[in-house]
């Protein structure tokens, strides 16, 4: 016990680390591998210590009382009762424990100072611990903590991140002086910044320490970047690593957007002046015109691995195999077994010499679906490897998917939700709300969004500013903002109807990639914005209904944004209103 206790207390590099738990704390590699006697203690160490301390002082007190009584009554000291024998046994037992725990370790630490080699081992171990954790996280099929686990989550049996943190919970809550010691260790490179969460088991404190260390190492102040008021536990292992604070983005509301007979207040997170006001004006015009109609035409997330063969002939053979309808049934069974929600729709193949790109497309319920589709694809690849042993899997993603890059395949085939949204705006509304006329809007759309974009060689960019609205709604609702690349693909069509009096406007957006579960959607602010739209979390009635509704709202908001900006340009108001709303009148020199 004494030796074990000593190993628990052995100083590592800094005094602060002594107070960290041995389990997951800084022990040598061999220490961490070896089970120690204290591991067998069923109670946490500090409780065990408290018990022994209490026992020790209680029996000392008891024995002293008895001693005094015996002297008073002239009873010989060697005549002892059963209770006194027990007290003496407990006295020795607790004395040995406390001596072992506090005495030997201290003496040992003075006699045997730690070698620098040990220190190197420790650092390596921290890195190794963290790498292990990252590996576990990488192998994590999905952030199951945020949502009910699927069977697939169970298959990969990741160690939940919460559990990893629990293992590292400090035995004694640390004080500001101890925080200071840890900051110093981070600055000196003795503790890797990335390992703070796992070492401390307190994400907010880890962020505060990292932030302070960062300020000291860079010599730059982070004043203005808030730390408090954010749940750092919620982002751990799912949304952001090594946090030092959070950026505040104002959320404005455009609306009501009247679409398919329902009114929506659309949250937009942006720092671009005019954007919310302009979208709001578009919503007003749509509302005054009786609302917009939005339809989902297609729903399927994609992932396209790239595999290589020895010959182009073999690559073509796999293409034929995948495209044979007789094989689809068994392939989809394999694919679907990876998730409750992922359902394979089709596989589109493209050959480039000896290489084959297989674009798997599947429905993903209310999730945006990248993790889900990847799991299904992995299942099919494992099977294909047996059928085509000469197949070499080069990568689970071969860019034919295509994620977060402008690509014609998304523009033509669609990715995520393919949506079309339309509205007919009466002449009067065009005049009164949009301050322009139908003919000017039709002409501008033709010359700007169609011809101008064609001249620029646009890929899916046949619109005025779809990405403005997409990005603002994405940030507010916890979508992946990088997917605004393909999610903003949009062609805006404008026509004069009803004898040239009224305006028909539509936006066609083939690849809106949104989800209402997973990723950033579970964070408090983003979740509140989803709640405002009535699409928070998984749909209880029809899986996928919330995500699909969100996609239609995105398209409806884009329609409003297009209508308003196009009108401002047609009326020659753009520069004027931007000067008014985008340029602060504040004297920045002050
Ligand atoms: P993504 O695939 O978009 O990256 P995640 O894998 O992060 O999404 O989140 C999806 C997780 O949510 C999966 O574990 C899935 O089983 C779970 N889930 C719960 N309800 C639903 C639902 N209605 N639709 C889709 N996924 C759901």
Automatic annotation (TrEMBL):
Q: Which GO terms describe its molecular function?
A: hydroxymethylglutaryl-CoA reductase (NADPH) activity
Q: Which organism is it from?
A: Pogostemon cablin
Indicate what this protein is called per its UniProt record.
3-hydroxy-3-methylglutaryl coenzyme A reductase
Q: What is the lineage of its organism?
A: Eukaryota, Viridiplantae, Streptophyta, Embryophyta, Tracheophyta
> What reaction does this catalyse?
(R)-mevalonate + 2 NADP(+) + CoA = (3S)-3-hydroxy-3-methylglutaryl-CoA + 2 NADPH + 2 H(+)
Transmembrane stretches in the record are 43-64, 85-107
InterPro entries assigned: HMG_CoA_Rdtase, HMG_CoA_Rdtase_cat_sf, HMG_CoA_Rdtase_CS, HMG_CoA_Rdtase_eu_arc, HMG_CoA_Rdtase_N, HMG_CoA_Rdtase_NAD(P)-bd_sf, HMG_CoA_Rdtase_sub-bd_dom_sf
The answer to whether the entry has keyword Transmembrane helix is yes
Q: Where in the cell is it found?
A: Endoplasmic reticulum membrane
Example GO biological process term?
saponin biosynthetic process
Organism domain of life: Eukaryota
Pathway(s) it belongs to: Metabolic intermediate biosynthesis; (R)-mevalonate biosynthesis; (R)-mevalonate from acetyl-CoA: step 3/3
Which family does the record assign? Belongs to the HMG-CoA reductase family.
Q: What general EC class does the enzyme of this chain belong to?
A: oxidoreductase
PANTHER family from the UniProt entry:
3-HYDROXY-3-METHYLGLUTARYL-COENZYME A REDUCTASE (PTHR10572:SF24)
Identify the keywords attached in UniProt to this record, alphabetized: Endoplasmic reticulum, Glycoprotein, Isoprene biosynthesis, Membrane, NADP, Oxidoreductase, Transmembrane, Transmembrane helix
Q: What is its EC number?
A: 1.1.1.34
Look up and give the membrane topology term. Answer: Multi-pass membrane protein
Stretch list, region Disordered:
1-32
Write down any Gene Ontology CC term: endoplasmic reticulum membrane
